[in-house]
Amino acid sequence: MLDLKKLHYFITVANEASVTNAAKKLNMTQPPLSHQIKVLEKELGVELMHKVGRNIELTSAGAILHEQGKEILESINILEKKLQDVHNGTAGILSIGSATSWGAPFLSEQVSIFNERYPQVQFRFYDDMQHSILSLLEKRVVDLSIVFPPFNHKLYNYIAMPKEPLIAVMRKKWDTAPLKKTTTFEELADRPLIINMKAEEHLTAYYKNSEIKPNIVCVHDDVRSMLLLAKTGLGIALIPKAANWVKYEENDMVYKIVDRPTSQINPHIIWLKKYKLSNVADKFLKLIMAE
Amino acid sequence: MLDLKKLHYFITVANEASVTNAAKKLNMTQPPLSHQIKVLEKELGVELMHKVGRNIELTSAGAILHEQGKEILESINILEKKLQDVHNGTAGILSIGSATSWGAPFLSEQVSIFNERYPQVQFRFYDDMQHSILSLLEKRVVDLSIVFPPFNHKLYNYIAMPKEPLIAVMRKKWDTAPLKKTTTFEELADRPLIINMKAEEHLTAYYKNSEIKPNIVCVHDDVRSMLLLAKTGLGIALIPKAANWVKYEENDMVYKIVDRPTSQINPHIIWLKKYKLSNVADKFLKLIMAE
DNA sequence: CCGTGTTACGTATTGCGTAACTATA
DNA sequence: TATAGTTACGCAATACGTAACACGG
């Protein structure tokens, strides 16, 4: 097997067209360098250079090794640098699962900052139901996931993200109190609601001991679809404030914060305890915690 | 600098996903292999793999090194093989100068055989005047040249190729003796001749002490042009028999051997004594001498 | 002879195997 | 307790420097 050290020696000699000068560049004495070239020739079973008068001249094999060898050394240098970057978490792929499209928006800002600082990191988001996302973690397809409680605290490490209020998105015709900027579950109870599955559980729990039954007209896990449905006038969409990047530029739409702590949703970033985090993921989490 | 031996170790371990199995494949014991991987990690400053339970698992940096490292090792293997071939003279470039297009035809058969046997060798022909060709040899642009005597026997090694008769190519109208298959300089003397520069010297020498003066209508160094001129009926082209690959498929053309030993031309392959021949050139010469 | 590259030899480093140890399922 | 990987140590091979040699302009 070719030895890169000797290859490097040879290429330096070929560049300098002189063993003595090459030895200086390599911070070594001339005789062992000369010897190493001979050894390299023996190892390859090939003449690489020979003295012609006082100078040195490459054979055709030597010329080929000179050209291609340079490329190989170069590609190895690039590879080494890449490895360092990946190791430092400043390059590579960061895969994040998010429990339905409800999750991703909470990270959009941090992703943006991280990308600006480490443009060599590629993000990959996997949207799915919460239980599927957990299995993606288990299969190590994703490094991190954004989920909503409850989840098993024994299996996962987690960071709780800032709580996020729900907002109610509706056409004006559904707005029974146009002067108020907020609303409540009680106010909303009799009007048609468009909610996601998680919120359905919330509401069911919330109204458990009450006589009021919410009027759920549609359950959908995709925020954009929910907003579209709201826009058609089907009902009132309850979505996390952070997910409200799709603002319909129409006067006819009304956005109200649902004014009740229990209505806030509580995204968590989780990852498996039993596996060591990738370095990129680690670096990303540090960024999040620094905020 | 990355060490290819260790890289090879690492890749084997990564392929096997086991140090023990890899050690078997590498015909070594397991502990030093494990140790070398650790050393490699230290040299790179990067974690490549870690135990997870009883098994081993690549880090993302390790996965990258696995992929790219394989490619690098592969390209090095290919390079090594190529170097062997070039060294054996079974691959590479063989540059041959030929003193005008008169030269190349003498080698066409050998070139063809050589190419069939060693298809990785590329031939490059350089056609020019004899003195230019000699300077191409001196500049080491070409390895070998085909020339015609005289040349300096002290500077060049040479192989004399079989002597080659001239043939006279003419339209029927110039054929004064249709029954004879050969002709002579005397017969041709009064008819218009199309010859090359070398032949001009020959003829001048030949007729030096004679009263006959040859009727030279055109001097041209390119065989194909000479044949074309003959075909137009301008005169009689004198060309080496070997160069007669351009046969005009017309009944109106006549081809006659010039029947006189002195009219034979005498191609030589020459190369510089003071430089060592390239291995391809050497191999090619061996082929020629074997015939 | 001066500036090349080569040969010869002693020393420090590296790399392997064996043996003892550690950890996980 | 069996089967993986790790640590410890001694010996053999390798690569370097120094010194002496060879050769061409």
TrEMBL record, chains A, B:
Coiled coil: none annotated. The keyword DNA damage does not apply. The keyword Cytoplasm does not apply. Gene3D superfamilies: Periplasmic binding protein-like II, Winged helix-like DNA-binding domain superfamily/Winged helix DNA-binding domain. One of its GO terms (cellular component) is protein-DNA complex. CDD domains: PBP2_LTTR_substrate. Pfam families: HTH_1 (PF00126), LysR_substrate (PF03466). Residues 2-59 form the HTH lysR-type domain. Keywords: DNA-binding, Transcription, Transcription regulation. GO terms for molecular function: DNA binding; DNA-binding transcription factor activity. Signal peptide: none annotated. Belongs to the LysR transcriptional regulatory family. This is DNA-binding transcriptional LysR family regulator. It comes from Pectinatus brassicae. The lineage of its organism: Bacteria, Bacillati, Bacillota, Negativicutes, Selenomonadales.
